[in-house]
Amino acid sequence: LRSREQAGEEARSGELIGASHFGNEGSSGKQKQEALTRLVMGGIPMQFRHPIWMELSNTQAIMQPDAYKYYQQIISETAHRHSESSEDIDAILKDIPRTLTSKYDYYAEKGYDRLRRLLVAFVSKYPGLGYTQGLNMIAGYLLLAIPDESDAFWVLCNMVDTFFPPNYFSKETAMSAPIADNVVLRSYVKEQLPKLSAKFDALDIAPEHTVPLSWFLTAFTAILPESVLLRIWDVWLCLPGQKTFLFNIALTLLAAHQKGLMDCADQSEIWAYMSNRIKISEEPDKVTELIRSAFLLRKKLEHVEGRRAAELKKTLKR
Questions:
Q1: What is the Cα–Cα distance from 227 to 229, expressed in whole angstroms?
Q2: Do 80 and 86 form a contact (C-beta atoms < 8 A)?
Q3: 244 band by pLDDT with thresholds 50, 70 and 90
Q4: How far is CA 167 from CA 14, 113, 178, 209, 293, in A?
Q5: pLDDT tens track for 115-128
Q6: Confidence (pLDDT) at 18
Q7: In 151-220, which ranges are E strands?
Q8: Quick one: 249 and 228 in the same domain?
């Protein structure tokens, strides 16, 4: 890995960074990509996630020197004049005490202040998006993996700009994108898990409610333990062609819990099951098995982006 400064200069000058250049290296590049895929799917050690996520997610390409402090400062100076900014800050302050409550060391290390500053800077950079519940959880886990506030901030920005579909957290289209995702997910459930799809139909569960919106809005922080979540993010952020990997995970989780879901008697039991009873072993080998199963769905889910875009257009017209 190159230094952050060197990588940032290369990114801003248009040079390829991360693993994006492997495709130009013929058979040698293919071998490197295969080796990288094996390593990432096996799990990146926590102490290396910071530099590796920064590098392989190409976050350096969007970083601006000193901008993090600027975004914090500008919103502090203007919030009293803009009610929307003030409302966003109030919502952030309410959500922070509910974030990573089981991580006592997180708050002992001033995690509260760090998370507040990061989220305030985010709403300053994206006034059209503002603050949405779920961003606090994503940002909180980013700060666990990336202790440097500024770097964690830029990875969050990169997630929103590049890894989530456009306008996923937009106030203007509130919840339209995750709702569209649910409809698209249901179409894949029908194709890949027809018995479960029939069960949902029998219980009159609309496609828009296939899974809790929090699954996608929080990038699975709402239901998965840290050790599993961060390994999923390893693949999502670091491997080329995996920007829709969270879709693979959603379908894999439904497949893994199909029996329990089939035993549910009504809608309320389904909601409770998907919100509170999704259990994933934290044993490294079991997590690897889950990730491999999700990864192997890539061919079956290769049209996710196109289906998402088409469904979002329909959703916005309703």
A1: 6
A2: yes
A3: very high
A4: 25, 27, 10, 20, 29
A5: 999 999 999 999 88
A6: 56
A7: none
A8: yes
CA dihedral in degrees (50, 55, 56, 57; nearest 10)?
80
Q: Is the dihedral of CA 145, 171, 271, 297 positive or negative?
A: negative
DSSP-based helix, strand, coil % in the chain, nearest 5: 70, 0, 30
Question: Is residue 39 included in any domain, yes or no?
Answer: no
The verdict on residue 17 lying in a domain is no
Instruction: Report the pLDDT value the prediction gives residue 87, as an integer from 0 to 100.
Output: 87
Instruction: Classify residue 23: in a domain, yes or no.
Output: no
pLDDT at 299 over 80: yes
pTM: 0.89
Average confidence (pLDDT) over 45-66: 94
**CA distances, 254 to each of 179, 208, 213, 217, 239 (Å):** 17, 16, 14, 17, 23
Domain count, the chain: 2
SS3 (DSSP) at 299: coil
Question: What pLDDT score was predicted for residue 10?
Answer: 45
Looking at the structure, tell me whether residues 140 and 186 fall in a common domain.
Answer: no
- What's at 187, amino acid-wise? S
pLDDT of 163 above 90? yes
For residue 204, the enclosing domain spans 176-317
Which residues neighbour 291 within 8 Å (Cβ) at sequence distance 6 or greater? 41, 231, 232, 235
The three-class DSSP label of residue 211 is coil
The CA-based diameter of the chain, rounded to the nearest angstrom, is: 58
Which CATH number characterizes residue 284's domain? 1.10.472.80
The two structure tokens encoding residue 260: 């329990």
pLDDT digits (tens, 9 = 90+) for 85-115: 688 889 999 998 888 877 766 666 677 889 9
Do 133 and 193 lie in one domain? The reply is: no
Is 221 found in the same domain as 148? Answer: no
Is residue 35 assigned to a domain?
no
pLDDT at 243: 92
